[in-house]
Specification:
alpha/beta, Enolase-like, domain 1, three-stranded antiparallel β-sheet, 21% strand, 2 domains
Length: 365
Amino acid sequence: MTGGGAEAGPGVGRDGTRIADWSVETVAMELDVPFGISRGTTTTAESVVVRVRDETGREGVGSGSPEPHYGETPATARAVLPDLLAAVEGEPPGAIQRRHVAFEDVVRGNPAARAAVDVACYDLHARQLDRALYALLGLAPERAPRSCFSVGLAEPDEMRDRAGAAADAGFEHLKVKLGTDRDRERVAAVREGAPDARLRVDANEAWTPAEAVRKSHWLADHDVEFVEQPVPASDREGLRFVYEHASLPVAADESCVTAADVPDVADRADVAVVKLDKAGGVWPALQQIHAARAHDMEVMVGCMVQSNASLAAAAALAPLCDYADLDGSLLLADGADPFTFDGLRADGELALAGTAPGIGVTERS
């Protein structure tokens, strides 16, 4: 699928900076091991990859990982991407506000598709200026927190071994997926495999409010930092009940999709989880971060299981955040991701300083 090439539409300038062409592809990437959460287990991750090019041939790349839980699939993303890209064709990639206003006229849903285009435009804009995205945003790379590593739902001995391997690789924080009637056994197994790691747990909406409060009491004994999305996103009062009675801080993920959700969760959660693929791109994610700060909430920048072509853009926002959950590309099989990103180390360190211009990814040869 390719854009209009030389006929980029009215308003194209002569300085070579405007978007003149684009292309879209879908990539399916095998995971290193099956990754389970309370809603199910997956063995592959499918992303849409967008490339935008200016009149000089400079290219920006971005990707999005559509999530059916948010009403989006790779097929629906592919269906709307031509219209989203037509909206930016002929525009400078740095025309951020105009781009997002245009997106709203094209489609209200499909946040991962919008994120893919937004990331590609940011990447091209930063490359045109020969600057890394974090620097373009004026952020201090040394402020980025280390990423945690996610231990998916599996048999307790498997979770123990994966936790131990992540700790041996240098990860200081592990996120443990829960949401079963054997949660206590699984947490004990993870703690056995990684006795010195700090833990975070994520139920992905699987618990009742009373269950979440009850489990929080013994989770606190395992040096758990916080519990993420303990109850269904639709149960706002249940989330408030957990926030008021649990022994641990509460992070809102599925309950806090965009900046507009922040005021509603600010009095029932401690941490807002920000993801480009649910917010709709870099600019909406920045708005969500600032909204959370205005409501005295902490912030975790997160990701899907996804390509570095999206994760690297999220990493550029990490200096604004308290926590990072940016291991999505590390969960893929070796060589499955078409892109590499030197800013994410194998031990979870986000080493943004010195990354390449743009979002910092390199296409695998």
